[in-house]
């Protein structure tokens, strides 16, 4: 029980499985279990009492307030085969460095593609009464969208880094990764479009760089704080 309650709106068909797995793997991410091998971590999860994961494998271990069917339907249903496939999905995650899918929801409270976020914005958020919006400050972030060139100019002003230097081949890739992540979060553009703006990168290069940045920030608190400061500084500028 740490911090305030928070919830996310999730594009279920694309992200729900990943969110479920990430949360269920939280117990084995504790530092005291870092030296365990995959089999030992798997055993730990099976016997862990403060998580719903055991109920997904064994119906005898279920809690009445958990809806197991929603997740298991993505694996064939709440049947023996579906439960087996979910166990395999979890086991595979033990051997991989899985990025946190909840990171993409920070600021907006929505986990999904740009198209999904835009759909939610158009269909629901624009219709919310101003009085309700004041009670839900994160809605301002969802509604906010910047023009890419204006964000780039503001980024350079905030960081004191020239755009040509940022995008020059062989330059500090962290700064360019910062810029790409900010463009993805705050501008209504695709990753290929981001690539063209930051030096002619292709889709896969942009996607990989953003993924690597998220992984690095997860391990490096100083780097994460640096990014959050830039993001915060940009929010105070009139872009």
Would you write up a description of this structure?
This protein has a two-stranded parallel ribbon. 19% of the residues are buried. Helix 11 crosses helix 13 and helix 12 (191-197) packs across helix 13 (203-219). The protein has helices at residues 12-24, 38-47, 53-57, 69-72, 80-94, 114-123, 130-135, 138-143, 148-159, 163-167, 173-186, 191-197, 203-219, 221-236, and strands at 9-10, 110-111. Helices cover 59% and strands 2% of the residues. With 239 residues, it is mainly α.
Strand order of the largest sheet: 1-2
Number of strands: 2
Radius of gyration: 20 Å
The portion of residues forming beta strands comes to under 5%
**Element order: H for helix, E for strand:** EHHHHHEHHHHHHHHH
What's the short version?
With 239 residues, this protein is an all-alpha fold. It has helices at residues 12-24, 38-47, 53-57, 69-72, 80-94, 114-123, 130-135, 138-143, 148-159, 163-167, 173-186, 191-197, 203-219, 221-236, and strands at 9-10, 110-111.
List keywords for this structure.
239 residues, mainly alpha, 59% helix, elongated
How would the blueprint of this fold be written?
Elements: E1 9-10, H1 12-24, H2 38-47, H3 53-57, H4 69-72, H5 80-94, E2 110-111, H6 114-123, H7 130-135, H8 138-143, H9 148-159, H10 163-167, H11 173-186, H12 191-197, H13 203-219, H14 221-236
Parallel strand pairs: 1-2
Helix pairs in contact: 9-11, 11-13, 12-13, 13-14
